[in-house]
């Protein structure tokens, strides 16, 4: 125990900030894109819908390293997109913090997207129609009616996406690498110190991750409780 | 004001051909479930887009496929009362009513308050839909429509979500609220009683098509089509063959009927309302059917008999219904069931199959 505390005191805390920053930014990206994508897919029918749905869910079922491989192909500075980004905007994705965020966002995206879609599917389509016949524009209906009605599902999707983003390892290590103080997130740090047989430092980081996980669980519990409260009678308490 | 609509919509293997012209204030569309009634309303409101056709309201073209005109729902000035009311669950009564209004906060507030007062909703202004009864929700939904002063109000099965007791009270209330409304209303229902009470003009729908249009009285007196007769509540419909100008054979019921008037030239079926039979005791008169193999159903305020047709073979579903008129009750109590039931020639409906 004392060893743990001593190790914690002497620790380089930068991986925590990198992880938190990555988690928050990736979640923000997922939040916006996930909701937009879910709403868009709701308007599609038939084959187009299934294809779009499959593509958007893919990162969840692929091994993260495979997703990372594709991202690397995509953003490599020897490939068109990577060249374009670097030449025109001076943006480097590979081996950078932007890479961390992109990798985490891609992996966490399906969680947000699927939660949002499930939440939208629960909303009565007649609310949209009613809004239109009442003279409201579609964006107005979306923000004033649909989104508030879907809020519980979207909030839990956000929390899940954050949890997934903050712990991302596979795709991040491929796209962003493991550069101390720059792209080394907590998960990558743990893997690295274990390789060095430094179980004490690993223990400190594991504790930090556990605390974050507990906070996330508490948040989910809090949200679902709030949701049930709105539903009236509760059978099990 | 006048509304003229003629359009076609296909959805999967269902296709709807709508034809609806009216200048009357109160209109009813009577049709079985799944015939395309709601679809018609949705197309009028601009929620669904027809494949082709034209919708015109008071000289304004709302939809014209050949001219590429399709006025969006929010600009049509048509209110829609949804079957489940579609109130916004995250908004209070007041917010729901004001949701689609434009203008300053003060103006909106004034309009909302006026309508809430008129529909006795002021006390419910802070309630959410989940905190109100079905009847109250319907009043809020109506207020939300009326506050926008639409030119047309569409009512989609307005009473189907209410229990029988509430239905009656709400019908009364709806009539009262709409009596002050001078635009066009169109109510869709499968319930002939509600529409009989509500409509000036009635449209009868078959599967995916409009069969008839006319005043309520006209249509109930002469439905013309077999499907329309069923919807107006005619219980006995059977195949019939014309023999000569005064004779026909009611094939399904195994009897030959004579009329003093000349029979219409073309009909494939005849209909006879269950209330219109006359009980006959003793000798068989003209246009009678033997009262045999009967079943009885006693309801609180009526007695129904089901009589077998005079054919050798018949199936249970082919029995004739006789709903005993109240003035015949003492007679039946005294003399028991009659020996025959007589058709009154002027009550026979001549029908053909629609499409």
Q: What brief labels describe this structure?
A:
heterodimer, A: 237 residues, mainly alpha, MetI-like fold, 78% helix, globular, B: 355 residues, alpha+beta, Rossmann fold, six-stranded mixed sheet
Written account of the structure:
- Chain A has 237 residues and is mainly alpha-helical.
- Chain A is 78% helix and 0% strand.
- Chain A has twelve helices and no strands.
- Chain A has helices spanning 2-9, 14-43, 46-61, 64-75, 80-89, 97-122, 125-133, 138-149, 151-166, 170-175, 186-195, 199-229.
- In chain A, helix 2 runs antiparallel to helix 3 (46-61), helix 3 (46-61) crosses helix 6 (97-122) and helix 6 packs antiparallel against helix 9 (151-166).
- Chain B contains nine helices and 23 strands.
- In chain B, the strands form six sheets. In chain B, strands 7-8-9-3-10-11 form a six-stranded mixed β-sheet, with helices on both faces.
- Chain B starts with a strand and ends with a strand.
- Chains A and B meet through helix 7 and helix 8 of A and strand 7 of B.
Task: Report strand % of chain A.
Answer: under 5%
Reported for the largest beta sheet of chain B, the result is: 6 strands, mixed
Dominant shape of chain B: elongated
The Rg value of chain B, from CA coordinates, equals 25 Å
- Average pLDDT of chain B, rounded to a whole number, is 90
Number of helices of chain B: 9
What fraction strand of chain B? 25-35%
Order of helices and strands of chain A: HHHHHHHHHHHH
Helix and strand composition category of chain B: alpha+beta
User: Low-confidence parts of chain B lasting 5 or more residues at pLDDT below 50?
Assistant: none
Q: Approximately how much helix is present in the residues of chain B? A: 10-25%
Strand order of the largest sheet of chain B: 7-8-9-3-10-11
Number of strands of chain B: 23
**How many distinct folded domains of chain B?**
2
Shape of chain A: globular
What is the mean predicted local confidence, pLDDT of chain A?
Answer: 88
CATH homologous superfamily of the largest domain in chain B - what is it? P-loop containing nucleotide triphosphate hydrolases
Q: Which range best describes the helical content of chain A: under 10%, 10-25%, 25-40%, 40-55%, 55-70% or over 70%? A: over 70%
| CATH A-level architecture of the largest domain in chain B | 3-Layer(aba) Sandwich
- Determine and state the CATH class of one domain in chain A: Mainly Alpha
């Amino acid at each position: 125990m004392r060893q743990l505390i001593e190790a914690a005191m002497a620790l380089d805390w930068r991986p925590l900030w990198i992880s938190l920053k990555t988690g928050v930014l990736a979640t923000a990206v997922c939040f916006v894109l996930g909701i937009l994508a879910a709403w868009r897919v709701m308007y599609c029918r038939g084959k187009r819908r299934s294809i779009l749905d499959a593509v958007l869910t893919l990162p969840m079922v692929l091994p993260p390293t495979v997703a990372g491989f594709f991202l690397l192909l995509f953003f490599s500075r020897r490939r068109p997109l990577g060249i374009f980004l670097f030449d025109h905007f001076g943006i480097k994705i590979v081996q950078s913090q932007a890479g961390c965020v992109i990798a985490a966002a891609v992996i966490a995206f399906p969680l947000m997207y699927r939660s949002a879609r499930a939440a939208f599917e629960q909303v009565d389509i007649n609310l949209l129609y009613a809004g239109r016949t009442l003279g409201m524009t579609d964006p107005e209906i979306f923000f004033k009616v649909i989104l508030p009605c879907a809020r519980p599902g979207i909030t839990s999707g956000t929390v899940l996406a954050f949890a997934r983003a903050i712990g991302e390892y596979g795709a991040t290590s491929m796209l962003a690498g493991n550069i101390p103080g720059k792209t080394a997130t907590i998960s990558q740090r743990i893997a690295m110190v274990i390789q060095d047989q430094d179980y004490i430092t690993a223990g400190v980081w594991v504790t930090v991750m556990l605390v974050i996980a507990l906070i996330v669980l508490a948040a989910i519990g809090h949200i679902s409780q709030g949701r049930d409260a709105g539903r009236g009678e509760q059978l099990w308490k | 004001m006048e509304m003229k609509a003629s359009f076609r919509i296909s959805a999967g293997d269902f296709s709807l051909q709508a034809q609806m012209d009216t200048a009357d204030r109160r209109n009813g569309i009577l049709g079985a479930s799944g015939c395309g009634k709601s679809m018609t309303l949705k197309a009028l409101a601009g929620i669904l887009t027809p494949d082709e056709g034209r919708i015109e309201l008071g000289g304004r073209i709302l939809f014209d496929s050949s001219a590429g005109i399709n006025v969006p729902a929010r600009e049509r000035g048509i209110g829609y009362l949804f079957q489940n009311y579609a109130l916004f669950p995250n908004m209070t009564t007041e917010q729901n009513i004001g949701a689609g209004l434009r203008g300053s906060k003060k103006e909106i507030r004034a309009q909302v308050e006026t309508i809430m007062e008129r529909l006795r909703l002021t006390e419910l202004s802070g309630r959410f839909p989940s905190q109100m009864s079905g009847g109250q929700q319907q009043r809020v939904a109506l207020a939300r429509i009326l506050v926008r002063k639409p030119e047309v109000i569409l009512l989609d099965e307005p009473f189907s979500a209410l229990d029988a007791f509430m239905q009656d009270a709400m019908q009364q209330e709806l009539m009262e609220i709409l009596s002050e409304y001078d635009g066009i209303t169109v109510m869709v229902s499968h319930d002939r009683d509600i529409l009989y009470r509500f409509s000036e003009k009635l449209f009868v729908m078959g599967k995916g098509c409009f069969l008839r249009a006319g005043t309520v009285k006209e249509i109930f007196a002469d439905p013309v089509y077999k499907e329309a007769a069923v919807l107006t509540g005619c219980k006995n419909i059977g195949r019939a063959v014309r023999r000569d100008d005064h004779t026909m054979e009611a094939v399904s019921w195994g009897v030959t009927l004579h009329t003093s008037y000349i029979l219409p030239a073309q009909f494939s079926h005849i209909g006879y309302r269950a209330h219109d039979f006359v009980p006959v005791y003793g000798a068989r008169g003209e246009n009678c059917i033997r009262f045999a193999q009967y079943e009885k159903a006693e309801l609180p305020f009526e007695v129904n008999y089901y009589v077998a047709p005079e054919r050798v073979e018949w199936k249970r579903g082919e029995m004739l219904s006789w709903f005993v008129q109240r003035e015949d009750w003492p007679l039946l109590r005294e003399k028991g069931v009659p020996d025959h039931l007589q058709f009154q020639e002027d009550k026979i409906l001549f029908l053909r199959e629609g499409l």
